[in-house]
Amino acid sequence: MASPKKKGWREVVIAGGFAGACARTVVAPIERLKILYQIKSGDQEISALLRDLVQKEGLRKMWKGNSAAVIRVVPYLSLQFVSYEKYKGFLREAGPPTASPVVIGLGAGSLAGVTAVCATYPLDVVRARMALQTEGIAQTSYRNMFDALVGVGRTEGARALYRGLAATVVGAAPYTGLKFGFYEFFKLSWCEHYGIDENQMHGGVRVGAGATAGLLALSAVYPFDVVRRRMQTHKGGARYPSVWSAIVTIAQKEGVRRGLYRGLSLNYLKTIPNVAIYMSLYDITVKWLGEREHEFA
Q1: What are the start-end ranges of the E strands in 121-261?
Q2: Residue 265 class from Cβ within 10 Å (0-12 exposed, 13-18 middle, 19+ buried)?
Q3: What stretches of 37-76 adopt beta strand conformation (E)?
Q4: Angle of helix 203-232 relative to helix 101-134, nearest 10 degrees?
Q5: I want to staple 65 with a disulfide (CB 3.0 to 4.6 A). Which of 23, 134, 244, 255 is the partner?
Q6: Whose CA is closest to 118, among 180, 172, 177, 158?
Q7: Are the C-beta atoms of 53 and 62 separated by less than 8 Å?
């Protein structure tokens, strides 16, 4: 197979942002339901929560708050894909010639996940806060993302904008690494089996590879996502002394399945199409831009 064509950073930014915005809009109703379910304790079933939301607000309101989420996800995924391509190139050059693309994808993905999270984390915090405001759970009156950034920093201190970062980084590194690693593995296996180049791969195969990669990666790190949301949406002092303390406390008080893996099935419904769309759409968009011979590098 031919060696992959080097991608220009601008086409990577465009493709990553576009893919992220499209994917996030498609799964917005599931994401809204997931956040509400994660931060609430108790035994209310997902189906009952969904029924209440639709009856009270209507189906169209399931996309409420999506604009704030898109504002966060576009820079996040753009930076994640740019970082991934840069780290992947560095690891290829620094590593042995026989290094597996899967191993390189795993390492580059982990580094890219940490880079993107650290750079955009305050946006994730205020997006979660605005989601609570939208639902009437938090008594705040932020006008937009920028107003929320300033407001949280002024009333709670700059540290509040990074509350839960440790849990996010601990979860993001293996999650993003596994996601990219599995994605590269499935693409490589398909190409080797059929003796084709990656550019000849059908879009449906990329979607399937992305969906499976997202499912496997999410299953491995899901408890950290629950801890992250609990920390982000808590006002005042630290809710838990550490990530490990949070995991132990939630497991003891709420149980492993109902606490640490609360909403996992719902997250599968969100993550599988989300990752499938943005991983495959990113590849397809980069290929499309390359075919139009845009010289962004």
Answers
A1: none
A2: exposed
A3: none
A4: 50
A5: 134
A6: 172
A7: yes
Cβ–Cβ < 8 Å for 222, 261: yes
Q: Is 193 left (phi over 0), alpha (psi -120 to 50) or beta?
A: alpha
* Confidence (pTM): 0.80
Instruction: State the pLDDT at residue 42.
Output: 59
User: Looking at residue 297, what DSSP letter applies?
Assistant: -
- With tokens 């719902």, the residue in question is 266
- The model's pLDDT over 198-241, given as tens digits with 9 standing for 90+, comes to 888 888 999 999 999 999 999 888 888 888 878 877 666 667 77
Residue 100 in 3-state DSSP? coil
* Amino acid making up residue 180: F
pLDDT of residue 296: 43
The answer to whether 31 touches 266, Cβ cutoff 8 Å, is: no
Q: What is the mean pLDDT of residues 54-69?
A: 83
CA angle 107, 112, 113 (to 5 degrees): 100
Instruction: Determine the Cα–Cα distance for residues 227 and 224; give it in Å rounded to an integer.
Output: 5
Weakest-pLDDT range from 61-70, 185-194, 222-231, 286-295: 286-295
- Residue 240 near residue 250 (C-beta atoms within 8 A): no
Please give the single-letter amino acid code of residue 11: E
Amino acid at 131: A
Residue with tokens 């490990």: 244
Contacts of 212 (CB under 8 A, 6+ apart): 182, 186
Q: What does 207-227 look like in DSSP terms, one character per residue?
A: HHHHHHHHHHHHHHHHHHHHH
| pLDDT tens per residue, range 263-292 | 788 788 888 999 999 999 999 999 888 877
Residues 6+ apart with CB under 8 A from 126: 68, 142, 145, 148, 149, 152, 161
Residue-by-residue DSSP string for 246-276: HHHHHHHHH-IIIIITTTHHHHHHHHHHHHH
